[in-house]
TrEMBL record:
Originating organism: Zostera marina (Eelgrass)
Annotated PANTHER family: INACTIVE POLY [ADP-RIBOSE] POLYMERASE SRO2-RELATED (PTHR32263:SF14), INACTIVE POLY [ADP-RIBOSE] POLYMERASE SRO4-RELATED (PTHR32263)
Listed EC numbers: 2.4.2.-
Pfam families: PARP
Keywords for this protein: Glycosyltransferase, NAD, Transferase
Annotated ranges, domain PARP catalytic: 1-240
InterPro entries for the chain: Poly(ADP-ribose)pol_cat_dom, RCD1/SRO1-5
Single GO MF descriptor: NAD+ poly-ADP-ribosyltransferase activity
Protein name: Poly [ADP-ribose] polymerase
Amino acid sequence: MTERVNPNIHENIYDEKSYDPWIERDGGMRALMDSMAVNPTEIELLEGYGREEVMHMFLSGMENTVSSNNIFAIHHIIPKSGAKIGRLQIFTQKAATTLARCGTVNMRNGWFGTSYEVITDILLNGFDATNGLSVRGPLGSGVYLSPQNLACNSAQNCYPNANGLKYMMLCRVILGNVEVVPVGSYERFLPSNIEFDCAIDHPTFPSMYMVWSCNILTNIHPDCIVVYKETPTITRGRIC
């Protein structure tokens, strides 16, 4: 029997009537990090309240493996080119159609951890079914993100660059009608019913969101990038 998710799960819920994806966060425009081959005007280094908000969200979900001193930058992604604006419009249209169909957008913050190279590809090309982001995982095949308060789960997929820096992406995710899928459903490629948009592993306290491969382009929008290093921890009297 298919189980419906409790829509009021442990995160701030967006006010769908007043939600405006075109509102930019506070922060001054800065040059992009030298190593990233992305238009520098499409990356804004967060300052002030916006930075503190994202940093608190990140640190509270990292289980003391990262300190504030080890966060090197938090960047806000601002679509300006035609293709990137187009992808944001597709995302916005999907939010509207999901609201009309389901009565709720059920939009959440989700963390996506990966390598520097993949982060750069997402900045250039967005979430796309052709760039290898869809993986065969415990809920089936799709893109896996962790909830706002569990960044540590996605951190397992973050791979450091040559300087030891790791990259975590904060995304907006349209969950819509969510299906609870048993962990171990590696052979699943589609939801059990067309009324479901995404999958989770628990109806009230999910540890992962999974966006089906068919919804990658429409249901995920990258918002911020956190650049960090893990804090060394003391284990059995030694630094590791």
